[in-house]
UniProtKB/TrEMBL annotation, chain A:
Record keywords, A-Z: Kinase, Phosphoprotein, Transferase
GO terms for MF: phosphorelay sensor kinase activity
Protein name: histidine kinase
UniProt enzyme class: transferase
Any Pfam family hit: PAS_9
CDD domains xref list: HisKA, PAS
Organism: Pedobacter nyackensis
Start and end residues of each PAC domain: 77-129
PAS domain ranges (all copies): 2-59
Superkingdom, natural source: Bacteria
SUPFAM superfamilies: ATPase domain of HSP90 chaperone/DNA topoisomerase II/histidine kinase (SSF55874), Homodimeric domain of signal transducing histidine kinase (SSF47384), PYP-like sensor domain (PAS domain) (SSF55785)
Enzyme Commission number(s) from the entry: 2.7.13.3
Alphabetized InterPro entries for the sequence: HATPase_C_sf, HATPase_dom, His_kinase_dom, HisK_dim/P_dom, HisK_dim/P_sf, PAC, PAS, PAS-assoc_C
Domain Histidine kinase: 147-358
TrEMBL record, chain B:
Entry keyword set: Phosphoprotein
Name the record gives this protein: Response regulator receiver domain-containing protein
Species lineage: Bacteria, Pseudomonadati, Bacteroidota, Sphingobacteriia, Sphingobacteriales
Gene Ontology biological process: phosphorelay signal transduction system
Domain Response regulatory: residue ranges: 9-140
Residues modified to 4-aspartylphosphate: D70
Length: 358, 146
C-alpha cells in the first residue's frame, strides 16, 4: 500500500496536503504540498497528533477525535473549517479522512487529504456580501419608484381637478377649439394617471404577501368568468386541463395569467376568433407553462422589448394600452424564481413560455 | 409669409396625436408658407417618403423637406426609422432634413444623434417657432418675392 513509488507520486501532488496517520491520528507521513499548506516540515511534524492543526475551541469540542472516530466507523469523514498553520495563521481547509484497512479489515491508520480553500472561501464571502448589497439596492430602488410615483400623482390630480372646475364653470363660453384642447388635456392626464399607477403597481408586486398553494385550474376557471365579456365578444376558445397546483403569490399569479390571457384576446387577428392553448410540463425544479395563441404575433426584433416597462409595439389608435402588462408578468415570474420569453410568427400567433419554481 | 425653395412640406412623426397637434400649430404660426403632414408611426412615415403602402401612387403629394422625428414611439422608434431611412434610395432622401425630437433628458441620446450623419439636429420637445424658423433658414434657400 505505502510503497515508495506511491509515496513519490503523492509527494508531487499539488493543491492537496496528503498525510498518513496511525490509528490514533498521529502523523506518520507528509507530502510536499502539506509542508506548503500547513507550514511544518516533515521532521517537525511526524509523530505529532493532528490536533495541532485545530484551534482551542475545536479541541474543546473534540473535533479531531470525533473526525477520527467517524472515519473509523464509516470509513470516511469530511469537514470544512478554519485550521491553524505553523505560526498560528488561519486557513480554511476542506478535510477528508479515510480509513486504511489491513487484510483482516481492521483499521490500521488513515489517509488525510487537506485542501486549502481560503481563497475560495473569501470569494464566496465577497459574493455573499455583493448579493446582500444588491438586495439592499434593489429594495431602495423599489422604494424610490414607489415614493416618486406617489408624489407624481398629486400635481396630476390638481391638474385634473382644475380642468373639471374649468369645464363646469366656463363651458358656456367654450368654442370647439377650447373643447378640443380640454379633450387633449383630459386624455393626457388620464394616460399619465394610468402610467403612474402601472409604476406603483409594479413596485408593489408581490410585496407583503405570503405564498400559498394556488390551483391553476380554479384560477383559470375564475378568470374565464372575469373575462367573460371579451371572451364572448371575440368568440375566443380557451383550452386547458390538468393544470398544476403551484406554490406562489396568489394575487400576482392571477395577474400573470390574466395579463397573458387578455393580451391574446386583445392582439387577435382581425376576423379570426382567438384560440388559446395553455399547457404545462413539470420537472423536479420547475413548472414550464406555455400560453399559445393564434393572434397577430410579434416581430422577431421586438421579442425582448415587449417585456420592458412602457414599451409598446402599436400606436394607441390601433391598440389601446400602456405598455405595462408584460413588464408586470416578467416581474411576477421572476418573483417565483422563473424566466419568461416569447416565440412568435408574425400573423400566425405567439407562444409565451414561463417557468415557476416548484 | 416666407417661402423656402424645396421646403414644400414638414413631416411630423409622433405617435402622440396631441404632440402632433401642437407642433402643427407651431409650424403654422411661424409665418412660413409650407404644408404640414402629421403621421403617427415611423413605418407610415417611411411609406410616405417612398410612396408605398397607403401612399402608393401619391407622387404628387407635397414632398417632405423637414422631418421632425420623435425618438420614443411604439414598435419602430426614431432610431429604427433612421436605420431604415439610411437604406432608402437617394431620390427619396433628396433635400430632406431630419430633426430628432425628444422628451428624454438622457444625454446619451443627444450624443448618439450627434454621431448620425442623417440627423441634422436634436431638439427637446415641444418644438418652438424660433427653432423651426432657424432650421428652415439654415437648411433652405429663401425665395424672395420680387
Amino acid at each position: 500500500m505505502r510503497s515508495d513509488s506511491l509515496l513519490r507520486m503523492l509527494e508531487v501532488i499539488d493543491d492537496y496536503a496528503i498525510l498518513f496517520l496511525d490509528r490514533h491520528g498521529n502523523i506518520e507521513n507528509w507530502n510536499k504540498e502539506a509542508e506548503k499548506i500547513k507550514g511544518y516540515t516533515a521532521e517537525e511534524i511526524i509523530g505529532h497528533n493532528i490536533s495541532v492543526f485545530y484551534n482551542e475551541e475545536s479541541k474543546r469540542n473534540r473535533l479531531p477525535e470525533l473526525l477520527i472516530e467517524e472515519a473509523k466507523l464509516k470509513g470516511r469523514a469530511q469537514h470544512e473549517g478554519w485550521r491553524i498553520r505553523k505560526g498560528g495563521e488561519l486557513f480554511w481547509g476542506f478535510i477528508t479522512i479515510s480509513a486504511i484497512y489491513d487484510d483482516n479489515h481492521q483499521v490500521v491508520g488513515f489517509s488525510k487529504f487537506v485542501r486549502d480553500l481560503t481563497a475560495k472561501r473569501q470569494l464566496e464571502k465577497t459574493t455573499e456580501e455583493y448579493a446582500r448589497e444588491l438586495e439592499i439596492k434593489n429594495k431602495e430602488l423599489e422604494q424610490f419608484v414607489y415614493i416618486a410615483s406617489h408624489d407624481l400623482q398629486e400635481p396630476l390630480l390638481t391638474v385634473k381637478n382644475f380642468v373639471e372646475l374649468f369645464k363646469d364653470e366656463y363651458q358656456d363660453v367654450f368654442d370647439d377649439n377650447a373643447r378640443l384642447y380640454l379633450q387633449f388635456i383630459d386624455r393626457s392626464t388620464e394616460r399619465m394617471r394610468n402610467l403612474i399607477k402601472g409604476l406603483l403597481d409594479y413596485a408593489r408586486l408581490g410585496g407583503q404577501q405570503a405564498k400559498c398553494l394556488v390551483d391553476c385550474n380554479q384560477l383559470m376557471d375564475s378568470l374565464q368568468n372575469d373575462l367573460f365579456g371579451s371572451i364572448n365578444a371575440t368568440g375566443a376558445e380557451i383550452y386547458y386541463k390538468d393544470l398544476p397546483i403551484v406554490y406562489g403569490f396568489e394575487t400576482a399569479l392571477r395577474q400573470l395569467f390574466q395579463n397573458l390571457l387578455s393580451n391574446s384576446l386583445k392582439f387577435k387577428r382581425p376576423g379570426v376568433a382567438p384560440k388559446i392553448f395553455i399547457s404545462v410540463v413539470g420537472n423536479d425544479n420547475f413548472w414550464h407553462f406555455e400560453f399559445k395563441d393564434n393572434g397577430i404575433g410579434i416581430e422577431e426584433r421586438y421579442k425582448e422589448k415587449v417585456f420592458i416597462m412602457f414599451q409598446r409595439l402599436h400606436s394607441t389608435t390601433d391598440y389601446e394600452g400602456y405598455g405595462i402588462g408584460l413588464s408586470h408578468c416578467k416581474k411576477i415570474v421572476e418573483l417565483h424564481g422563473g424566466t419568461i420569453s416569447v416565440e412568435s410568427i408574425l400573423n400566425e400567433g405567439s407562444t409565451f413560455s414561463f417557468t415557476l419554481k416548484v | 409669409m416666407k417661402k423656402y425653395k424645396d421646403l414644400d412640406c414638414v413631416l411630423l412623426v409622433d405617435d402622440d396625436i396631441s404632440t402632433n397637434f401642437i407642433h402643427r400649430r407651431i409650424v403654422e404660426n411661424a409665418k412660413i408658407d409650407v404644408n404640414v403632414k402629421e403621421i403617427t408611426s415611423a413605418k407610415e412615415a417611411l411609406d410616405y417618403l417612398t410612396y408605398s403602402g397607403k401612399y402608393e401612387g401619391q407622387e404628387d403629394a407635397p414632398k417632405a423637406g423637414i422631418v421632425f422625428l420623435d425618438i420614443n414611439m411604439p414598435g419602430m422608434n426614431g432610431w429604427d426609422f433612421i436605420a431604415e431611412y439610411k437604406k432608402l434610395d437617394e431620390k427619396h432622401k433628396a433635400r430632406i432634413v431630419v430633426v430628432m425630437l425628444t422628451t428624454s433628458l438622457n444625454p446619451d441620446d443627444e450624443q448618439h444623434a450627434a454621431m448620425v450623419e442623417e440627423i441634422a439636429t436634436y431638439l427637446h420637445k415641444p418644438l418652438n417657432i424660433g427653432a423651426f424658423a432657424e432650421i428652415a433658414s439654415k437648411y433652405f434657400e429663401e425665395i424672395k418675392e420680387e
